[in-house]
Amino acid sequence: MIVMGRLRNLAAYRGFILGSVQREFQSKYRNSILGAAWTVLNPLAMILVYTVIFSQVMHNRLPGNASAFGYSIYLCAGVLTWNLFAEITSKAQTVFIDNAGLIKKINFPRLCLPIIVVANALLNFGIIFTLFTAFLIISGNFPGPVFAAMLPVLLLQILLAIGLGMVLAVLNVFFRDVGQFFSIALQFWFWFTPVVYPVAALPEHVRGWLAWNPMAPIIMAHQRVLVAHQAPDWASLLPAAALTVILCLLGMQLFRKRAAEMVDEL
């Protein structure tokens, strides 16, 4: 009943959520000559750098993959999806602090704020990933029907990100060092995840540590679909799914118990 009540409250404020997403999107390119064109130009430049520089200039090749664009696709699959995770967690952990003035002045469901964070991140990701998908089709590297397998993996990744982000957001209100620590930890986390290097490049004794990294099987699932054109290893995602459930429940519990106290701390 509590969950249904919260969902109804959020649905009632859908105009507020959509308006906030639109305002943030427009504010990024205000006073810019090219305006919203930068939403296409920036990601397009990144994709071109990855595909042209790494495949044609540096002649990087992915072990076990004969495609000239194999490593470039592997790199884009990892970087683009990691950036989605990093954007959600980084912005979610400061969402209550960043919107302190709004929280104190206006009465609205506070859970709207994490939803706005996710919506903005998905909008940015949707633009760049659409361009990347177009590149896969044009270059003849589109994985086919197995491409749809990315949807449940993306959903798991988003829930993991917002679950972690909610826990950090509540803790960050009371202990501001949490946000600083996570920013540093996120950098180490990136390099401990097979985003820019294949797992085969790691020494045998190091590979076992990846089992403790919930983002490793998620990123590898995306790469498996986009590079090998194979369905993810669903069993490998079960630990990440279990952790996601725990973090989402913990985040909601912390928020429910500390919501009133947070207003005084902001």
Shape: globular
Task: Please mark out the parts with pLDDT under 50 across 5 or more consecutive residues, or reply none.
Answer: none
What's the helical proportion of residues? Answer: over 70%
Determine the number of helices (DSSP H or I, runs of at least 4 residues). Answer: 12
**Strand fraction:** under 5%
What is the averaged pLDDT score? 85
List keywords for this structure.
mainly alpha, globular, single chain, 71% helix, 12 helices, 266 residues
Structure, described:
By secondary structure, the protein is mainly alpha-helical. It has one domain. The longest helix is centred in the C-terminal third of the chain and has 28 residues.
Write a compact overview of the structure shown.
The protein has 266 residues and is mainly α. Helix content is 71%, strand content 0%.
SSE map:
Blueprint: H1 2-12, H2 14-27, H3 38-57, H4 70-92, H5 95-98, H6 100-105, H7 112-138, H8 150-174, H9 177-191, H10 204-207, H11 215-227, H12 238-265
Helix pairs in contact: 2-7, 3-4, 3-7, 4-7, 4-8, 4-11, 8-9, 8-11, 8-12
